[in-house]
Design a protein that fits this description.
single chain, about 400 residues, alpha/beta, Aspartate Aminotransferase, domain 2, 7-stranded mixed sheet, 5-stranded mixed sheet, binds pyridoxal-5'-phosphate
């Protein structure tokens, strides 16, 4: 069924599904590494791209294809490319769109390893990157050089929760002959569709909201046009960053409830953020659903809702944050985010430990910042949990 005319929750349930001969209601796991050709001419036609079909799972697989089609439809792109992990998508993107001596401009407070990949590895091939606060479009514009090939934006960003104007970033990139890629992991396609706002590529760590159940790692990329899609697919296949069919099956299962999970988690996050903001031991709260957040109005324009990621700092700084993390009982002390269970972590010593203190300061987050990913538990229980933990601080 063509689902492009349907509402987003209908598309989440039905997107990408093509019934097979058995009539299976969910997409089966095609756990096969290779696919038989009808005859030699058929094999040759598949390799030449003259006929649609499957050859070998690194190149394509029906379970993986269903996920790719579903997310591509949600993101309004030409097609999707599922990858082994979110970083598999990021590395495929860099490999496909940068070359020796190319320059990239990136949001300073991106996911730590998205930055580390450039600083530790692509730098060996002469790739340079400027990490700037892209929530300020003037800083983005000033960082552009004649050799800038790619503008890479994460919004909302991790963990500083800065919001970048995607349409504004797209016009700056395009005016200077660069492409815009957006890491849409924190928002998910349910809350934000960057390609509609002018981005050329959107990517996700599906480990987070899209799968939502903390049981696999995976990634996906969607390109707006066919040419970029073909280029990136070729790189993914040649580097072997493919997803596995069983992984794709679990992600398809998680995807169906994305809308329900996101709506519930963000309602909880709004209540928790307001409660935290009023707490005497809390120094500051960054939640884009609060009118005190500098990106609140922009988020209202370019997102359908504010999501469920909160970052906050206690008056007692890092030591107080550590005490809090050691004393929560319902929230789990773990990295990752976007699952049904609430997670708490400390970016400066965990997810962003690879960044220098100067880089963290420049990216706009203090050592005392705690990141809280709200799950779908009862908000009252989460607040009671935070309350008892804050009493120990
Ligand atoms: C987790 C994450 C990634 C990396 O994804 P993996 O699935 O862990 O490889 C990239 N970007 C953001 C914003 C993330 O949260």
């Amino acid at each position: 069924m063509r689902t492009t005319e349907l509402g987003i929750n209908s598309r989440l349930v039905h997107g990408g599904y093509h019934p097979d001969a058995t009539g299976a209601v969910t997409v089966p796991i095609y756990q096969s590494s290779t696919f038989a050709f009808r005859n030699a001419a058929h094999g040759a036609a598949l390799f030449a791209g003259e006929e649609e079909g499957y050859i070998y799972t690194r190149i394509g697989n029906p379970t993986i294809r269903a996920l790719e089609e579903s997310v591509a439809e949600l993101e309004n792109g030409a097609g999707g490319i599922a990858t082994s992990s979110g970083l598999g998508a990021v590395s495929t993107l860099y490999m496909g769109l940068l070359e020796c001596s190319a320059h990239m401009v990136s949001t300073a407070s991106v996911y730590g390893p998205s930055r580390g990949l450039i600083e530790k590895h692509f730098s060996r091939f002469g790739v340079e990157a400027s990490f700037v606060d892209t929530s300020n479009l003037d800083s983005l514009l000033q960082a552009i050089r004649p050799d800038t090939r790619l503008v890479y934006v994460e919004t909302p960003s991790n963990p500083a929760m800065q919001v970048t104007d995607i349409a504004g970033a797209a016009s700056i990139a395009h005016d200077h002959g660069a492409l815009l890629a957006v890491d849409n992991t924190f928002a998910s396609p349910y809350l934000q569709q960057p390609l509609k706002l002018g981005a050329d590529v959107v990517l996700h760590s599906v480990t987070k909201f899209i799968n939502g159940h903390a049981d696999i790692v995976g990634g996906i990329m969607v390109a707006k046009d066919d040419e970029v899609l073909r280029l990136l697919r070729g790189v993914m296949v040649d580097m072997g960053c493919n997803m596995d069919p069983h992984q794709a099956f679990l992600v398809l299962r998680g995807l169906k409830t994305l809308g329900l999970r996101v709506e519930r988690a963000q309602a909880g996050a709004q209540a928790i953020a307001q409660w935290l903001e009023a707490h005497p031991k809390v120094e500051s709260v960054r939640y884009i659903g609060l009118s005190s957040h500098p990106g609140h109005d922009l988020a209202k324009r370019q997102m359908r809702g504010f999501g469920s990621m909160i970052a906050f700092e206690l008056k007692g700084g890092l030591e107080a944050g550590r005490q809090l993390m050691n004393n929560v009982k319902l929230a789990t002390l773990a990295v990752s985010l976007g699952g049904v269970e609430t997670l708490i972590e400390h970016p400066a010593s965990m997810t962003h430990a690879s960044m220098s203190k100067e880089a963290r300061d420049a990216a706009g987050f203090a050592d005392g910042l705690v990141r809280y990913s709200v799950g779908i538990e009862d908000a009252d229980d989460l607040i009671a949990d935070l309350e008892q933990a804050l009493e120990t601080v």
